[in-house]
Amino acid sequence: MHLNPITQEVKQAISTVLASEFAWNGESDSLVINQTKPEFEGDLTLVLFGLAKSLGKSPDQIGQSLGAALIGRFTGLFSGFQVVKGFLNLSIQDSKWAEGFNLQCKALNTVPCVGQSERIMVEYSSPNTNKPLHLGHLRNIFLGWSIAAILKKTGNQLVKSCVVNDRGIHICKSMIAWQRFGNGDTPTSTGMKGDHFVGHYYVRFNDAYKKEVDELISTGLTKEKAEQKAPIMKATQQMLLDWEKGDPEILSLWRTMNEWVYDGFDQTYNRIGADFQKTYYESETYLLGKKFVEEGLASGVFFRKPDGSVWIDLTEDGLDEKLVLRKDGTSVYITQDLGLAQQKFDEFNYDQSIYVIADEQNYHMKVLRLILKKLGKSYADGIHHLSYGMVELPSGRMKSREGTVVDADDITEEMVTVARTKTEELGKVKDFSADELKELYETLALGALKFYLLRVDPKKKMVFNPEESIDFQGFTGPFIQYTHARIRSILRKVGATSDEFSINEPVHPKEKEIMVLLGQYAEQVHQAASEHNPAVVANYAYHLAKTFNGFYAELSVMQAESEEKKALRVQLCNRTAIILKDAMALLGIRVPERM
Questions:
Q1: What is the 3-state composition of the chain as percent helix, strand, coil, each rounded to the nearest 5?
Q2: Which domains does the chain have, with CATH numbers?
């Protein structure tokens, strides 16, 4: 893990004293050092419990002896210590923070975050071609894009991929509905975006299906029988069979309607800044896993039941029996995913393959990884499920087939409207041109949307509130964007300054607070990478912006007490702006130069 130079120096000092005073022979990297909690005095905290076990002394004994020795031997590094219930809180000399900050400022345009390079694939989005992208997709897309950016930042080679679910009963439903109700209409003739156009007919199918089922129930059929006998469903099932047989007319309609959807998807992806190096289509991959069935049967990993279906028994692993091939010889989703995992590895030889998929598929992903391990696949340990909770609205959960899903395009437009309203209320953009305002509103809208969906730990479910997400004073993207613009305004007023400065005066607590935070950026990025959690970066960016505003409210930059102080504060402003811009970029968010 990439450590702040000061933290690394502290670890080395502690190791030196432990070795000489306590005959400790451990590695410095094994020491657990965290930022001291705000309610205690100090800057960095050493956890003593692990040392107590290996040294045979109480944590407090070790803390008192170690603290005194550190203060005595490293006077230029430490200014004080405090032992609190198994923790050694260490205060660092102001001059040391200033020295570290000065070193940072000699490379103002870089953020050192280089780690061990691995080949990593990140699969995200994975939409169905029967409807537009919706709010749930946005959390998936932003998570996938951001974790790829963070992993790339830490020195890895990234391939962003997408699997398009372009076959099956869902697309046939839209196709049947278009045949029956479309009257030859197209996205062009109706002025509708292609994915919205096809999604409209998916809803039309379900409306017609529900009506037919209700009519059949009224004749005395049970609901189950009515659903099976509904004419529109039977026609859809026949269409799927015809597609699988390669019926030219059905295939032609299927290609046409999918192209309408792809065109719509591309417009949305371009607007929100999503991209992929490789796209897989289920229609081309759904047969890939069948060779795994033969391999698994031959090795005894799979077994065949009397009806001809093929299964794997995972009961000893705490799961259950899992179907991998139906009795009619057709594959199921797990079979397809096995084949695709192999194809992806053959093409990219990945060290890690991250699947950004909702937590509803936790079981499926456990099974996929376990089967690959039992089949002896070398890449099985590299399979990682970035599981995330669903997004709901204040009104509750969305439902595609009932047409209550919030489309990605609609929520983006709503966010632009909210951004415009909120910005106009501030009244600070009167000198902006119409084009500049349009770009600003788009930047704020997407910043609010992305930050709100990324600031929460992926594992948690969340409720999306558009108004709350764009509050300029809250825990939001626009708050950070506004802080960046504010800093750039300060720097424009100051004008050109030298990167060189000396620090001979006492460092103010607010100045030190900013220095400490800026020095933690690389560690925060590495933590986000190791946890596959962009919320770490989002929370850091907010904390830095909030801390800067507290600093600026108390200390003047332009009217600093001395030229030395002014030079220091200008560089604090400059470095904060650079880090905020870099952190937000890892979330896929642009920051304006002025607002």
A1: 60, 10, 30
A2: 5-92 (3.30.1360.70), 168-277 (no CATH), 415-586 (1.10.730.10)
